[in-house]
Amino acid sequence: MIDLTLHEKAALVAGGTFWETRVIESAGIPSVMMTDGPHGLRKQADGGDHLGLGESVPATCFPPAAGIASSFNPELLERVGRALGAECRAEGVSVLLGPGVNIKRSPLCGRNFEYFSEDPHVSGELGAAWVRGIQSQGVGASLKHFVANNQETNRMTVSAEVDERTLREIYLAAFETIVKREQPWTIMSSYNRVNGEYVGESHRLLTGILRDEWGFEGLVVSDWGAVDNRVATLAAGLDLEMPGPQAASEKAIIEAVRSGRLPEAVLDASVARIIALVERGGAPVTEFDVDAHHQLAREAAVESIVLLRNEGHVLPFAADARIGVIGEFARSPRFQGAGSSQVEPTRIDSALDALTARAAVEFAPGYALGRPTDAALAAEAVALASRMDVALLFVGLPEGDESEGFDRAHLNLPADQVELIAAVAAANPRTVVVLTNGGVVSLEPWHDSVAGILEGWLLGQAGGSAVADVVLGHANPSGKLAETIPLRVQDNPTYLTFPGDGDVVRYGEGVFVGYRYYESVEVAVRYPFGHGLSYTTFDYSDLVVDADEARVTVTNTGDRAGAEVVQIYVSAPQSPVRTPERELRAFRKLWLAPGQSISVTIPLDARAFSYWDVATAAFEVAGGDYVVQVGRSAHDMVLSAPVTRPASRTPGKLTLEASVTTWLAHPVSGPIFRRAAAGATGGDDLVEGGASVLEMVGSMPVRRLLSFPGVPVTEKQLRLVMALANNRLVERVAKLFSK
Ligand code: BGC
Fold first, then answer.
1. In Å, how far are 428, 647, 699 from 642, measured between CA atoms?
2. Per-residue pLDDT tens digits for 569-579
3. Cβ-based neighbours of 554, under 8 Å, separated by 6 or more
């Protein structure tokens, strides 16, 4: 290892500038640059800010995570990742700060546009593909924000109070998949606290789980400005503080090492990881193909669009249809979210331009963004709608309504836009709404009044062309919702706890996030997770399920080529813990020509049948009969097949404090207990008044049996059985002899 003084080491573990690591000239250590991220490069030439304020170099703005997640297409995300990596190399950037794989706990989170899904499997699969793509170019990813950063309100101080099973199954799961599979070069620790402790100061999270359990080999970087106590964060495993330089942190580290409070070896480990990062990375390439990347952004945007509703096959529009294009968003697209991820696009396609070039179009803005209702604009739009064959109405959230840094208070579209939808729909029954929104918006009360709805999310710089491709039928929509659209925000399981009280937010819904809740409680939603229509139709048949895979045949029964996402859900049998009605455990996107059938085999790993067991601190399989289902969404199951899985768990150690039920379930003590009880009650079946005696006392700690007169059992007997069950018989017998 390079020989550095204590001062140099203390300097190196914080940035040298807003975006770069520290140069240590005496030791010949250069700096490397990290920039946002995630869906485009935000390289600031001068100075820096993490609020999306200052200018940055032009870069391709791909669809943000909320959009591209609807593609359910890891291969597409990998290609986008490769393009992002290439743009980084063209700009000499070593690490791209993304992707963000935080779970959409509440639809109100202001930063949901930057996250993939309410489902950890989707987030993990898509995030892994994105990281794989970026890193294939010799550029590092920074997986963020680790962990339980699910809201913007008080994000720098709030404590997410979350139980261990929920943390493992929902909030850590995507990080786990990606770390184990892709080894991201860096992970960004989040601002918030988890169960009272800053993530950056949590040795359990940053070292115990991340490194010791999952085998993470990369570097942990702080979110920008997240470090509260530098010595505590170093000790926990946070290698690099950003931004820098940080004179106070340097001083504190030096003092802590000198006084022996911080072992120098801990500092050395972080220094080594920073040097390893600096030494990584490919030689810069000079340029990237701006046109090819724009084309990829368009393809990604097409796959991000979700066709929610298509009554009477209003879409795609006939080639000669006269289209009334309405809404300022058609002319001035909002294609990305606000905050640190804001990219300076290389170009912008508006839907209005793209449609005008290919169809008979007239336009009326209908409303002015950020200004009060304008009756004249609305009247002009309604008049246009009534004289055209179809009305294509663009509505959505203005930029000020959602952003990094704050959460939304409701899911509503601006009131003037809701009024406009009603008026336009009344004027033309063939009205199609195109939505622009980073987070989910309410489709009430207007949903039923329009013939078609396209969920356009934020689609990146080529989104306008992509919308034209879809409405004109040049592309067939294939997106599926990666998050539920509820009927009312009040129906969401986090409604009463989001964003918490002061600096505490209790994740009281546990693992029942998003569709896991709606499906378990049978709460109706507007559109379920996984929903999305196509211009063609698909049939499913021949589901065959084995212990480790599901096989199913998908047929395109319509007359257009199209893509379908096969969604495999698993329902668990009665488990030691309460499990959701069903959980998405695998998916696969398939492209099918008209009439084509594909038989696809989708692996199901052990995790597809497991839950986090707090007793064994591991994922365990509850033995029993599972149901594997193929769904068109989390709500609409088309095929199902049972499969039996053995329990993974070796029986835990018996103790006198364990319940009678636990002792009965144990392969050693169970039969002994049953025989003894049968003898005591004088019968074989132990049934009294319809209920088993042993079941009636099932929750009683075994030790308490001793305090009931007439129960013919002694402590000595219990200890002997325990020794037998816990494989301690030899010791126990030896002890008997030594007395
Ligand atoms: C955001 C990060 C971002 C960083 C640097 C922070 O405020 O939470 O996602 O990467 O700033 O801009």
1. 48, 16, 31
2. 999 988 889 99
3. 538, 539, 540, 564, 566, 590, 592, 597, 598, 600
Compute the residue count for the chain. Answer: 739
How far, in Å, is the centroid of ligand 1 from the Cα of 50? 6
User: Among residues 223, 349, 401, 416, which one is catalytic?
Assistant: 223
Nearest Cα to Cα of residue 200 among 209, 211, 190: 190
* Residue 368 token pair: 């002015």
- Pocket probe for ligand 1: among 36, 53, 114, 158, the residue whose CB has the most ligand atoms within 8 Å is 36
Mean pLDDT across the stretch 4-24? 97
DSSP 277-301: HHH-SPPPPS---HHHHHHHHHHHH
Q: Catalytic: 163? A: no
Predicted confidence (pLDDT) per residue in 96-130, tens digit: 999 999 999 999 999 999 999 999 999 999 999 99
Cα distances (Å, whole numbers) of residue 580 to 126, 176, 573, 584:
22, 21, 10, 10
CA distances from 100 to 56, 141, 336 (A): 21, 10, 15
Q: Is the pLDDT at 684 greater than 80, yes or no?
A: no
Residue 144, ligand 1, Cβ within 6 A: yes
CA of 451 to the centre of ligand 1 (A): 40
| Ligand 1 center to 98 CA (angstroms) | 9
Cis peptide bond upstream of 499, omega within 30: yes
Closest atom of ligand 1 to 114 CA is 9
Can you read off the two tokens belonging to residue 206?
């940053």
10 Å CB burial of residue 471 (0-12, 13-18, 19+) is: buried
588-616 average pLDDT score: 96
